[in-house]
Design a protein that fits this description.
This protein has five helices and seven strands, in the order αβααβββαβαββ. By secondary structure, it is of the alpha+beta class. It starts with 5 loop residues before the first helix and ends with a strand.
């Protein structure tokens, strides 16, 4: 018997306009925050950040029977320049290695394309080896590396042109 795939095991939902419970998202993000280098919570108040994502971003949430397994947020609100930005991607420890991050980012790309965006941008830490493999495999190209966060941890910037 084969193990369930990310395709069959998880339900993906696109949550917009505050249409989900911020407390569950906050709990999920707190649960994996220590794996970010540095932790997101060391730079911003996570509760305030989640509230911002809930009200200003489109969130693609993957869950298994109501348990959040992963999520990404994408800002799709620069209608003038038609540029989207993914500020957050996280997958729970028990749910990694199954293609879930790929599915979540693919859903973000679909939402951006549906909204008429022409480019999606993302940045990650230089130490995030999984993300450094993921984004190029999805057609993103690396555009720069710098210390734009001002904390000595280098950021790797990627972007992907959307067609359509």
């Amino acid at each position: 018997m084969t193990a369930p795939t990310a395709e069959s095991r998880y339900t993906l939902e696109t949550l917009r306009d505050g249409a989900f419970e911020p407390g569950a998202v906050l709990d999920f993000m707190r649960g994996i925050d220590d794996e970010f280098s540095p932790p997101v919570g060391s730079m911003v108040d996570l509760a305030v950040y989640v509230e911002k994502l809930c009200t200003k971003a489109c969130v693609v949430l993957a869950h298994e029977q109501g348990r959040i397994a992963g999520l990404a947020a994408i800002y799709i609100n620069d209608a003038e320049n038609r540029i989207s930005y993914i500020p957050y991607l996280g997958v729970g420890r028990a749910d990694r290695g199954q293609g879930l991050a790929r599915r979540i980012i693919e859903a973000c790309l679909e939402r951006a394309a549906e909204a008429g965006m022409r480019v999606v941008k993302v940045r990650t830490w230089e130490s995030n080896k999984a993300a450094l493999r993921l984004y190029p495999s999805l057609g993103f190209r690396q555009v720069s590396i710098d210390d734009d966060r001002g904390n000595g941890c280098l950021s790797v910037h990627f972007e992907k042109a959307l067609t359509g």
